[in-house]
Structure formats: C-alpha cells, structure tokens
Write a structure and sequence with these properties.
Blueprint lengths: L6 H4 L6 E5 L5 H15 L5 E4 L13 E7 L11 H9 L5 E8 L8 H13 L1 E9 L7 H18 L9
Parallel strand pairs: 1-2, 1-3, 3-4, 4-5
Helix pairs in contact: 2-5, 3-4
This protein binds flavin mononucleotide.
Flavin mononucleotide binds next to helix 2 and strand 4.
Length: about 170
C-alpha cells in the first residue's frame, strides 16, 4: 500500500497563487481571466495582477507564480515584463511556476515570449506548465486552461508531498 506523507496535516492548506500578466490589446488579459477561472473551479484562490500593479518584492509571498505574456517584435518579451523576468530569474525562493500567453502564427517566432519565460523558469523554478493561444482565446480554450490549472496544482501537490510521486 502507498504511504501518503503528512496528508491530513497538509491538505487543508491552499497554496498562495499570483497571476501576473501584461496585455496590450486584451487577448492575454482574457486568457488570464480564463486561467484564473479554471483555478477557481479547482478550488484555488489566485490573486491576479496587471504587471504594473504588482510589487516585485511580493514574489516571495507566493507558493505559485503564473506569468501571462503576449509576444512583441521578433519573438520578444514585452518591456513591461522585463523587471518580472529578472526578479524571477534571481529570486531566492523556488516557487512552482507556469507561463501562458497569446501570439500570432503570422510571425516567425510564435509566442516567443512564452518560450523565453519557459526556458528561464525551467532553470530557476519548478516549472509546471505552459500554454499558448493564438490571438483572442475562444470557448474552446477553456479545456486547455483547465488542463493548465490542473497541471500547476498537481505539481504543487507533488512538490509538497501531498500526492504520491508517479513514474510519468
Ligand atoms: C508589432 C507586433 C509584433 C508582434 N510580434 C509577434 C511575434 O514575434 N510573435 C508572435 O507570436 N506574435 C507577435 N505579435 C502578435 C501579438 O503577440 C498577439 O496579437 C497577442 O495576442 C497580443 O496580445 P495582447 O492582446 O494581450 O496584447 C506581434 C504583434 C505586434 C503588433
């Protein structure tokens, strides 16, 4: 039989979750709302911040940090998110993270900003999931947001020893 470490003591704890995003024309903002709704459906209570309203010193207060980004110019991260990128690259705490974003397949580097965040977060945090959506998200993307949210929460639970490790 599998042993569940400290399961009873830990299952009542809800992880603190920050979703920090930038959006110029509203696509990533809509996707952010869908990701937040997906987390709420799974019992979580995310705090949602437009990046300019987020105090980078608060990064260490969160168990899970999710980044929402559009892509700019040749696959670049928008300027507003540069400070967040650097703060996450150098933070002492190692949160569970995820990155999602919108882009346009017309450009050579589709959702390049998601890839840039993914590579950095993979190296410096416990990266749980990524999600890319083309332009404005539709109702069909709801299931993908659910899967993203589930991956993030499952990774958190595994990391905290709330669930048995899987072989996958
Ligand atoms: C000047 C400009 C450059 C862009 N460059 C890229 C790009 O390199 N890769 C990409 O996938 N999308 C690119 N896009 C598309 C945007 O990332 C896409 O429309 C996104 O959904 C906008 O998100 P927002 O509505 O949250 O601002 C570009 C858009 C503009 C206007």
């Amino acid at each position: 039989m599998r042993k569940y470490r400290s399961r009873t003591a830990l299952t009542n704890y809800k992880p603190t979750i920050a979703i920090v995003y930038a959006s110029a024309t509203g696509h990533t903002e809509s996707l952010t709302q869908m990701v937040a709704d997906a987390l709420v459906r799974q019992g979580a209570q995310p705090d949602v911040f437009r990046v300019k309203e987020f105090n980078l010193a608060e990064l260490c207060c969160y168990d899970i940090v999710l980044v929402g980004t559009y892509t700019w110019m040749n696959g670049e991260i928008p300027k507003q998110l540069h400070g967040l990128y650097e703060a996450m690259e150098h933070q002492d705490k190692t949160p569970i993270t995820g990155v999602f974003g919108t882009g346009d397949r017309c450009f050579a580097t589709y959702c390049g900003a998601v890839d840039l965040f993914r590579d950095m977060l993979h190296a410096t945090t416990v990266l749980a999931a990524t999600l890319k959506v083309e332009q404005m998200p539709s109702a069909d993307d709801c299931l993908r947001c659910d899967a993203f949210a589930e991956s993030v929460l499952t990774k958190y639970s595994h990391h905290k020893g709330l669930l048995p490790a899987t072989n996958s």
